[in-house]
Specification:
By secondary structure, the protein is α+β, with helices and mostly antiparallel strands. Helix content is 65%, strand content 9%. It folds into two domains: 208 residues, no CATH class; 153 residues, Reverse transcriptase/Diguanylate cyclase domain (Alpha-Beta Plaits), CATH 3.30.70.270. The chain has a six-stranded mixed beta sheet with strand order 2-3-1-4-5-6, sandwiched between helices. The termini are far apart.
């Protein structure tokens, strides 16, 4: 029995255990990485558009029920409200480009609008349905309308949101639901609306749990796809996405974007003389040293093999020289105890007037090879000049 319980804990409970930082990331969006937020924004926008497209079709079709159950005047007013809601759903479903500087803010704002459309529909329909309780069918449909805010809260469960985000998005929905009760001249009390309020709280709890579960799963997938398992640097694919974003931001804001194309010198000799484990350790040592030297907003990409690309947003060429010397000191040592060195090509978006990020990388790559031909352990700048990395900066 003990072995069975231990097996359950190891296989089921243990994978779900979270440290303090991970748990905090599921409760609040603070500290979430920009890459994860961009991926979450893409998922949220895609699901908003899908749901909006479905509702744009289904909401007007439900007018048939209103026409069959209610008086003509009430049914036509509800139909007009439905058509207005459908038009808003169409606008949300319409394809649009994701915001480059603030994709997550755009996604959350779009989701909030999606939630408010049915909530406001319910609020504005209360007065129309106030006296539509003469037949059993009318009373049934009115009761179904009353559950609309609860259904909206349940819909939050399909979005990857933190607990705090789910709560904040739910507050306007709950507020419109309570406002509808007040407009309907109903006294808000536990005796009359206790069941409905409890159901709303349950839906909110389910939405929170589901949103956090999706955040955790997405975070695991994104981390696995984003980072090179050996060095902890961004992979080439994820790094290319970050490069594209930073290049577009540089073009929009007019601020410089610098690149360093870094190639570890004589890496093959390390593998041949000391084995691949030593080669892997040299790559880890160099990557760790580069990361310690770069700023928080800079990006390190493992471009392939022993090649790395450092992306330096808002960094003019004047600031690159000092950084190159700091990098040289941070590279670490080879297995035989001599310093690790690298050949570096430098490119900068304004100086090179590159048409896109790929062209900027290609220029830095060419200059890295030029540094190889000039004796290694040096950097070649956009003007063709050479900077020896071993020299003490002036």
């Amino acid at each position: 029995m003990n072995k069975l319980w231990q097996s359950l804990c190891e296989r089921i409970v243990a994978p779900a255990q979270l440290d303090h930082g991970q748990l905090s990331g599921l409760l609040t969006p603070a500290g979430t990485s920009p890459h994860l937020r961009r991926h979450a924004a893409t998922v949220i926008l895609a699901r908003v558009q899908l749901i909006a497209a479905l509702f744009a079709v289904l909401v007007p079709l439900c007018s048939v029920i209103d026409l069959l159950v209610f008086d003509t005047d009430v049914a036509l007013r509800l139909t007009g409200l439905r058509l207005l809601s459908a038009a808003l759903f169409v606008s949300l479903a319409w394809p649009r480009q994701q915001s480059a500087p603030h994709p997550y803010t755009q996604a959350i704002g779009t989701l909030l609008i999606l939630l408010l459309i049915p909530s406001l529909f319910h609020l504005f329909s209360v007065d129309m349905l106030a006296h539509a309780n003469q037949t059993r069918e009318q009373r049934l449909v009115v009761q179904l309308y009353a559950y609309l805010p609860t259904v909206v809260l349940g819909g939050l469960a399909i979005f990857p949101l933190t607990a705090l985000e789910t709560l904040l998005l739910a507050l306007p929905v709950i507020g419109t639901g309570l406002g509808a009760l007040a407009l309907g001249n109903q006294t808000i009390s536990l005796e009359q609306q206790g069941g409905t309020l409890w159901f709303m709280v349950m839906m909110l709890g389910v939405a929170m749990f589901s949103g956090m579960s999706q955040c955790q799963y997405m975070s695991a997938l994104v981390m696995k796809a984003l980072y090179d398992p050996l060095t902890g640097a961004y992979t080439r694919q994820s790094g290319s996405e970050a490069l594209d974003l930073n290049f577009r931001l540089s073009a929009m804001t007019g601020r410089p974007l610098s690149l360093l194309f870094i190639d570890l010198d004589h890496f093959k000799a390390i593998n041949d003389n000391h084995g691949h484990e030593a080669g892997d350790q040299a790559l880890r040592t160099m990557a760790d040293g580069i990361r310690r030297t770069l700023r928080r907003n800079d990006i390190l990409i493992r471009w392939g093999g022993e090649e790395f690309v450092a992306v330096l947003p808002e960094t003019p060429l004047d600031n690159v020289s000092t950084l190159l010397h700091r990098l040289r000191l941070a590279f670490g040592q080879r297995p035989e105890g001599t310093p690790l060195t690298a050949s570096i090509g430098v490119a900068e978006s304004h100086t090179d007037a590159a048409a896109n990020w790929a062209a900027l990388v290609a220029l830095a790559d060419q200059r890295m090879y030029a540094a190889k031909h000039r004796g290694r352990d040096c950097a070649v700048l956009p003007d063709g000049s050479q900077q020896s990395l071993g020299d003490t900066p002036a």
